[in-house]
Specification:
Blueprint (H helix, E strand, L loop, with lengths): L1 E4 L2 E4 L6 H7 L7 E5 L2 E3 L14 E6 L5
Parallel strand pairs: 1-5
Antiparallel strand pairs: 1-2, 3-4, 3-5
Length: 66
């Protein structure tokens, strides 16, 4: 499925929900903020939020360091 993730078009297969997208991108278990088509989602909403072609998804994850 063609999605727009952080402003870039990406092709991801076998994704049905925001949770699937986060897993496919290797962000599971990391502190992530997700927005889908302009709506900020809580982590509890990820598994219930379906994705559709050309959906705009913004994912911000935090990285520690010095």
């Amino acid at each position: 499925m063609e999605l727009i993730i952080n402003g870039e078009q990406q092709q991801l297969e076998q994704v049905n929900t925001i949770q699937d997208v986060i897993e496919r991108l290797g962000l599971t278990g990391k502190p992530v903020v997700a927005e889908a088509d302009g709506q900020v989602l809580t982590a509890e909403q990820w598994a219930d939020t379906p994705v559709h072609p050309n959906m705009r998804i913004e994912l911000v994850h935090f990285v520690g360091g010095g």
